[in-house]
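for the writeup, i need someone to sanity check this before i put it in the appendix. the sequnce is what the collaborator sent (i think, or maybe the updated version? ugh). structure was predicted straight from it, no edits. if anything looks off just tell me and ill rerun, i have time this weekend
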Amino acid sequence: MAQSRFARERFGTRPGVSILEVLFAIMITSIGLMGAIAIFPAAMMQARRGAQADATAVAGITNVHAFDAQGMRQPAKWLYYNGSAFAQVADPDGTMAYCIDPRFVAANLNDSKAHKFPYDSSSSLMGRVTLSNGIGTTNYMGKLLADLNFQIDDDISYDRFRDGVVVRDNTLQAASIFVRDGSSNALKRQSEGHMSWMATLAPKLERMPTGGVLEDRYVLSIVVFYDRPGDLTADSTGDRLATEWALKINSGDFHDAGINGGSVTLTENSTSLTADERARRLNIHAGQWVMLRAKTRGTASGTNRDMPLCRWYRVMDADEPDTSANTVEVTLAGSDWETSQTDPANEAEVIVCQGVVAVYEKTIKLEPKE
């Protein structure tokens, strides 16, 4: 009896939890849940970016090998439009760079402006070519064959519906979607069609004060697109929005002497464009890839001639466009840009292509024509 009384006096009677404490607990829990929910969209975006980066990395490496496997090193397979018909390109001599883009060529067969890169370019630094379809020497790839070779089918389509099931049931496994023939026979797995690629080839310029060049060695760049505009048909009348364009870099606009690319001011002062279109073209954002190109000064093979210097850079940062001056300042990351070896009489350009998410480079040696 005495021990029981002692225990009650020592520990006392535990009071209950007040309603105020309960409300505080609910408030703290709610704030924590709201904070967790707020990061879900950001986490999902990071997950999508990670999946996209993984897919583009695989696509880039795969298509470096596909370039060799399909014999694209052979200039004999490159075709260009000469104004009336397709013909084989001349033997590369280091004076021109090339963009192998059969999908764009197939969409603009009779448009002579489409056979330079970018579209309607006044520069002769880079020509856009297609490939032979393997039937004869001057038969070009059509749209279907170009899509088959230059679209990437790794992003397979799935659906959670089943035949005869109208309501989505997340307990069912994902079903593959197939391309079918007229008899509903499955032909192949259907892809989302987000990814595609093209290739650029630029002469491998050595670090020589005379601007020398090894004429059979080129830098191959596999350019991977994500959601490149589906309709690649260009329009010189301006009714369609451009998907690729050039921005000028004036003398003195390399603010870091071109070291690792560095800070650069880009200009779009074309009087033929509307103010809205100029602003759209200057709307560069971090993560984009752009090509920086110019003519080199000096000689090669003992003669004075123009040689293209073309390199891809990633945009690390970009300011808001200055619409009053039609300029935008960006920070590029890549190899050093040797401003002392580019022709000051010819302004450097930055080529912007919509949808480029990755670029993979490799030095190759072209195969001679047979």
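The two ends are 112 Å apart (CA to CA). The longest strand covers residues 213-226.
thx in advance!!
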